[in-house]
């Protein structure tokens, strides 16, 4: 499994990490490998980067109709994960939009856009279930949202992806 987590950095990192390796990533997936992209890693699966998705793209959630946030800053956004309401660490994450019959929706944002999906051997998550406590501690308004339970959701997601 190739795992591209979110975190610190910017889209320019794609040039050094994947621009010259995009074909290898595609071949790895074609040979049965899995790709797990979180936030930036989800964006990189989209049409402007690796272009490994079928009839779906990763777009900025803050620009989507009905979004509950218009600013990219760190916050806990409302999501529904496998039918249960939750709040998850968000920092300019993507929505996964397109033909919903072509992927399994695992989680949605408050406006109904897909936040976490599995499409064949590709799993994408727009928020940050991998966020450690120090991510929350860096922002005074986020400290009360730390629970640690999202790591379990990420593990379950990865297992589900491996079984797809």
Rg, Å, rounded:
15 Å
CATH homologous superfamily descriptor: Class I glutamine amidotransferase (GATase) domain
Indicate the mean pLDDT.
93
Range of strand content: 25-35%
How far apart the termini lie comes to 12 Å
Low-confidence stretches: none
Return the CATH class. Answer: Alpha Beta
* SSE string: EHHEHEEEEEEEHH
Globally, the shape reads globular
Q: How much helix, percentage-wise, in residues?
A: 10-25%
What's this entry about, in short?
With 164 residues, this protein is an alpha+beta fold. Helix content is 23%, strand content 29%. The chain is globular and about 45 Å long.
Describe this entry's structure for a reader.
By secondary structure, the chain is of the alpha+beta class. The chain has a single domain (about 1-164), classed as Rossmann fold (3-Layer(aba) Sandwich), CATH 3.40.50.880. It contains five helices and nine strands, in the order E-H-H-E-H-E-E-E-E-E-E-E-H-H. The strands form two sheets. It has a seven-stranded mixed β-sheet with strand order 1-2-9-8-7-4-5. Strands 3-6 form a two-stranded antiparallel ribbon. Strand 7 and strand 8 (about 115-120) form a beta hairpin. The longest helix is centred in the last third of the chain and has 14 residues, at about 150-164. The mean pLDDT is about 95.
């Amino acid at each position: 499994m190739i795992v591209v987590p979110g975190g610190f950095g910017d889209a320019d990192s794609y040039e050094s990490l994947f621009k010259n390796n995009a074909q290898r990533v595609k071949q790895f997936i074609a040979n049965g490998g899995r790709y797990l992209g979180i936030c930036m890693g989800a964006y990189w699966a989209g049409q402007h980067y690796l272009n490994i998705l079928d009839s779906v793209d990763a777009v900025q959630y803050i620009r989507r109709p009905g979004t509950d946030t218009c600013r990219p800053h760190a916050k806990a956004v409302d999501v529904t994960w496998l039918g249960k309401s939750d709040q998850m660490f968000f920092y300019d994450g993507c929505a996964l939009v397109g033909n919903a019959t072509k992927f399994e929706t695992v989680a949605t944002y408050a406006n109904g856009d897909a936040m976490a999906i599995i499409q064949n051997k590709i799993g994408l998550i727009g928020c940050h279930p991998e966020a450690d406590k120090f991510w929350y501690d860096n922002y005074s308004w986020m400290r009360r949202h730390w629970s640690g339970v999202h790591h379990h959701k990420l593990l379950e997601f990865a297992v589900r992806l491996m079984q797809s």
